Recover the amino acids of this structure.
């Protein structure tokens, strides 16, 4: 492999990894607070891209307005999902919540098939995202740096929210102990809703960027990114926002590099990502950034 | 407790009898024809999922054929469509439902060789004749008594594209296959074999890589192609469109080559300018009509849908008409009689060409080579077997 193609692959890996990371954060935030793996999160990614698609093609919004519209509506769906499907089950055994998450996921996918149609749709990129750029002999399209930049800005913003705002502090407190935090006068419902709101916004942005990178959207497009992002969240240490970012980037780069170094194994890319997950969990069960937590009884 | 146990035994009996009833053969005796209210012809196609465009196009043709011919031997036909979602497990389920619940006497479908192979296992065991519209992998009919098809098979299609490439003076080609689809894996192998036969060595194949269903990132595969002048990517239209877009974004300027699964408007919608100049083999072009039945079909199709029929639609039309033809020649609604009539199909005047079913259950037909020009599929040439 030449020096140039290494950097070409690295750039591709980072942009794919940033998307995994954006989506992984949603998983990890919800898990941190509720100990729930929200399997419907991948479907929010799909909804985000569809809302952006319809914003442009049906309501004739300019691309930026369509993207804001899509993020807003997806966040709304995320909040409703929490309120209707998860909140009433919070007091019950964890398995009920988990089952509800799987159910919501199937519900959203099948609703999307009925409402949006099963045929894949072509997502059109804003013109400035479609420009070819050359740096030396590396060729990439302008969306690559944009994806990386947008992700970076969102990561920094999210860290600031979590560490330096009241709502963020409440979220961190909830992740330690929901009941005690509630007793201290924190509005548990509002804080959990806020976490879902943030996660859904990031999922929508992830979905829009995903559709820009891979301009074909279909009702099941969220399944694989969702699973991969879940792997990324576990790799990084589930419950840990910084870990989700690192896990996402790592997974993206490793996936691309594996195929780049071993082209003959390219059909088994997913097998490799999941094998890495198993290996890592064997040696570091809490993930890269995860801490060992005493099991709460 | 005793009561509960009795209840359990009762339920078990009910379930067993339901299964037995569901499995009972439904073949009608030829003498009972007058009493039959309707016959069911089943169709299974991917109407949702990644192959949906293929299924929807096929159904345009099947629906048109059904509208023109909704009774056979004086008995009304009820057509039942089941969505197989382009999934192997769903295809087997769809076929089971058509046979056991709907009592289909014959089945049409399916787009996608893997779907057809999964459905074929079920129809073979139940003894229900099936007419495939566009599954081209040889394994769909191989070793099957009850599976036939209205289209050519992939060893031929692979040769058509290998021949096209060498005729265009291409010396270095990269192959990118979808390892989850029998269709794609088969075509990649047949293309490679034909390439070796034509050029005398496999040196010209500079890269062979794979991807899976659902993969959307092909940058790693594409960074392996080196100085290839052409990419042969025998996958479905959606994958191919993303692949072409990404290849052009990475600076590839050569030729894209594909096969009949590329024929969907989505290829151009998604790939945009990247698809311009791409060539692929297919079954049929409305621009190159072959039989007297072709022109009226194109006309009726235009009137119904306002567009020219695609190869998938034409094959869907032919497959349905072949089933009707077999039932008429059999003169009965018995599944085995229909099977025998299907196997004996000779010089049937289809809209995609004259169809004769050979000993392996396949149609031997010409292929056409199409090119993407100004966002439409334009006819280039016809290749005979």
């Amino acid at each position: 492999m030449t020096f140039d193609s290494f950097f070409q692959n690295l750039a591709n890996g980072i942009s794919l990894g940033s998307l995994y990371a954006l989506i992984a954060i949603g998983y990890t935030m919800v898990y941190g607070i509720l100990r729930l793996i929200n399997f419907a999160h991948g479907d929010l990614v799909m909804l985000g891209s569809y809302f952006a698609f319809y914003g442009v093609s049906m309501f004739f919004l300019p691309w930026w307005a369509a993207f804001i519209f899509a993020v807003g509506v997806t966040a709304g769906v995320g909040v409703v999902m929490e309120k209707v499907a998860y909140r009433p089950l919070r007091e019950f055994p964890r398995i009920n919540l988990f089952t509800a998450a799987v159910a919501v996921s199937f519900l959203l996918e099948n609703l999307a098939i009925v409402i949006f149609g099963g045929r894949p749709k072509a997502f059109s990129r804003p013109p400035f995202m479609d420009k070819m750029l050359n740096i030396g002999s590396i060729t990439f399209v302008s969306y690559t740096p944009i994806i990386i930049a947008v992700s970076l800005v969102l990561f920094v913003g999210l860290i600031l929210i979590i560490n330096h705002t009241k709502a963020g502090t409440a979220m961190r407190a909830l992740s330690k102990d929901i009941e005690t935090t509630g007793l201290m006068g924190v509005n548990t419902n509002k804080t959990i809703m806020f976490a879902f709101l943030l996660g859904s916004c990031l999922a929508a942005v992830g979905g829009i960027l995903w559709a820009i990178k891979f301009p074909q959207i279909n009702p099941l497009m969220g399944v694989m990114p969702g699973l991969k992002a879940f792997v990324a969240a576990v790799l990084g240490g589930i419950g840990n926002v910084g870990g989700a970012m690192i896990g996402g980037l790592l997974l993206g780069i490793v996936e691309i590099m594996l195929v780049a170094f071993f082209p003959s194994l390219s059909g088994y890319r997913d097998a490799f990502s999941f094998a890495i997950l198993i290996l890592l969990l064997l040696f570091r069960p809490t993930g890269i950034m995860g801490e060992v937590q005493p099991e709460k009884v | 407790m005793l009561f509960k146990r009795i209840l359990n035994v009762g339920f078990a009996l009910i379930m067993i009898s339901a299964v037995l009833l569901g499995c009972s053969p439904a073949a009608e005796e030829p003498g009972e024809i007058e009493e039959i209210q309707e016959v069911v012809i089943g169709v299974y196609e991917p109407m949702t999922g990644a192959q949906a465009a293929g299924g929807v196009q096929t159904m345009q043709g099947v629906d048109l054929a059904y509208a023109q011919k909704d009774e056979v031997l004086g008995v009304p036909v009820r057509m039942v469509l089941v969505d197989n979602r382009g999934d192997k497990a769903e295809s087997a389920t769809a076929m089971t439902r058509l046979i056991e619940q709907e009592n289909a006497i014959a089945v049409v479908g399916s787009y996608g060789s893997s779907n057809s192979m999964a459905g074929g296992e079920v129809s073979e065991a139940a003894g229900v004749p099936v007419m495939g519209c566009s599954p081209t992998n040889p394994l769909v009919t191989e070793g099957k008594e009850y599976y036939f098809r209205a289209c050519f098979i992939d060893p031929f299609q692979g040769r058509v594209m290998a021949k096209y490439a060498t005729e265009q003076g291409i010396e270095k080609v990269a192959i990118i296959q979808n390892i989850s689809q029998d269709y794609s894996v088969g075509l990649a192998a047949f293309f490679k074999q034909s390439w070796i036969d034509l050029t005398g060595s496999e040196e010209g194949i500079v890269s062979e890589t794979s991807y899976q269903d659902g993969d959307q990132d092909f940058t790693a595969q594409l960074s392996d192609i080196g100085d290839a002048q052409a990419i042969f990517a025998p996958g479905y239209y959606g994958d191919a469109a993303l692949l072409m877009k990404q290849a052009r974004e990475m600076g590839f300027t050569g030729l894209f080559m594909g096969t009949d699964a590329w024929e969907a408007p989505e290829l151009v919608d998604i790939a945009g300018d990247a698809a311009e100049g791409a060539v692929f083999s297919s079954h049929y072009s409305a621009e190159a009509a072959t039989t007297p039945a072709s022109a009226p079909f194109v006309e009726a199709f235009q009137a119904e849908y306002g567009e020219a029929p695609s190869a998938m639609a034409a094959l869907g039309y032919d497959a349905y008409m072949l089933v009707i033809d077999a039932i008429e020649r059999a003169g009965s609604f018995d599944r085995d009689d229909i099977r025998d009539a299907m196997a004996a199909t000779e010089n049937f005047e289809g809209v995609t060409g004259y169809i004769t079913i050979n000993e392996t259950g396949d149609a031997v037909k010409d292929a056409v080579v199409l090119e993407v020009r100004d966002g439409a599929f334009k006819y280039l040439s016809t290749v005979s077997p």
About this structure: The mean pLDDT of chain A is 88. Residues 159 and 241 of chain A are 8 Å apart (CA to CA). The two ends of chain A are 52 Å apart (CA to CA).
